[in-house]
Amino acid sequence: MSAAGTAPTPRTVGQQVAAHLEPYLGPLNARVAVKTFAQRNLKLEADALTRADLPALLDGLRPMLHTFIGRASTDALLDAIQRDVR
Amino acid sequence: MTRSADGLLWAFLAAVTFLFVGWGLAPDAGLFTGVLPAPRLLALASVIKMTLLATSALWAWRCRGAVDADHPLRIPFTMLAAGMAATLLGQALLAPYQIFGGKTPFPSAADIFYVLAYPLLALALFRFVQAYGKSGYPIGTAGERAVVLGTAAVTCAALGFVVLRPVIAAPGMTSVERALTAAYPALDFVLLVPLALLLRMSLRFRGGKLGAAWLTVLSGVVFMCAADVLFAYFTALGRSGLDPFVHAAFILAYGLIAIGVRRHLALLAS
Fold it and tell me: Does B65 touch chain A (CB under 8 A)?
């Protein structure tokens, strides 16, 4: 429960992944990245992603992130997504 | 590298930029006629520029080392380091004259290295665009990129005409002086073409660490171009009294590039 007493809005898997990418890619590109690779790798809309789709989604994101932020940051980021996204 | 180190770099850059802008705006102020007269400020500018150039070259080289041997950013970071190192060599050749003689010879052997830096920096920017394009991220269709490139090229050609005409027509310069004075802005316009592509991409990344790193580096390149144009104009017009603004623009340019490259390093080496 939030401080105001209302239940927090549940976030989709796609939104949670985008939230992890946001500090690196910015809010706009984080959403675009999730949308692009969900469609490209899974033929799904970002909102339809489930936790079972994470491995394929992260496989799609890995080469791009590797180019953008290097291997160490990519590995740490994808591990955090794998661990935190519910 | 910590956030406080980042803050210190920004504070230092702001302070020295304001110092040189202040010198340009109020050259008769007590500070500039007493404690910091023109020869001392020229020596200070020389040392600051070399420090910032050495730092940016070193950090770009460390970015190269922070990625795998087959990483697509390894070559562009190598070229960026080489471009900054070439500029550093040029500045280092001028330094003895500026620090001990209070003057800047032009033209000189330093210009060889300054000119050499441009193709290295332009190629680095093109290779960055290429690497990001191959990453799988949609940075725009080939048509969209062609439009950006075409627009940038036409804009640069128009600016080049406006900027270069008075420089070429200015009296009292030798042919070498004239050629070099015109070459710097012309080379800058070549640099602005890949910069337009990277800027377009970076604006999409705003709000994130990658966008912040790129926007800082590219702001530095823009200030470097502005400094070259100011240098060309003031040299052609014989307005040496405006040199403080040229120093301020170069210091800001080199500083922004250094800070931006440091941000890339923080991303790649974390």
Answer: no
Chain A residues in contact with B73 by the CB 8 A cut-off are 67, 70
Residue of A nearest to B135 (CA): A64
Residues 6 or more apart whose CB falls under 8 angstroms from that of B263 comprise B6, B209, B212, B213, B216
What does the H/E/C string look like for A17-81?
HHHHHHHHHHHHHHHHHHHHHHHHHHCCCHHHCCHHHHHHHHHHHHHHHHHHHHHHHHHHHHHHH
Q: Compute how many other C-beta atoms are within 10 angstroms of the C-beta atom of residue B241.
A: 11
HEC states along B131-163? Answer: HHHCCCCCCCCHHHHHHHHHHHHHHHHHHHHHH
Q: Answer whether B207 sits within 8 Å of A33, measured CB to CB.
A: no
pTM of the shown model: 0.91
- Give ipTM to 2 decimals: 0.85
Q: pLDDT tens digits for B214-240?
A: 999 999 999 999 898 888 878 777 776
CA of B131: which chain A residue's CA is closest?
A: A67
The whole-angstrom separation of Cα B49 and Cα B17 is 11
Q: How many CB atoms within 10 Å of residue A5?
A: 6
The rounded distance, in Å, linking the Cα atoms of B104 and B247 is 12
